[in-house]
Amino acid sequence: MEFRLLGHIEHSVADTMMRELQQQRVANQTEDIILIMEHPEVVTIGPRARKEGVSIPDDYTCNDVDRGGGITWHGPGQVVVYPIIHWQQEDEKNVAQIINKIENWIISTLMKIGVTGVRDQRMQGVWVDGHKVASIGLSFLRWVSRHGFTINHDTPEGRVEGISGCGLGAEVTTSLSRLGHKVSKEELLDSLISTAESCLNRNIS
User: 62 an active-site residue?
Assistant: First the structure.
């Protein structure tokens, strides 16, 4: 697999990029690719949230998406990871197993930088100190994934907390820095990449 650290990219541009790479991966024209980036502030709204008529405060920009899950905040101080991966290993036979593998990766990433992350029965993702700090939402084509997950490390005060993401109440989702865990983006990225091979059982090219 290949990692691509792309910096700041508009969500709409990233969406087009993901679709193109997913088609290439389905056609075996590329290896597994993991995109890492940061978006300007936007709230993405999945099909479930649209169906339920979830309302977003007027001071947030919104984009509709086709991934699983409900509402997800994106913005400064958040690491966004889009794995364009063909999931075909023995422990990747269904979506639940794939989500479990990604959660393990996030938990291992946080553990390496001294933060204890756990699962919570309220919602998939990773939680720290009773708050959700990582969200997961995927879309698949022939078992090649698009979209991915987010880790909130140092988001602007009150912004991610102001969204009732994925059916959770406001203030439940937050960032590591709001919980008192001072982690730099560089530390988080280094840990994410260094734990990838063992957690995903794939070699970095």
Answer: no
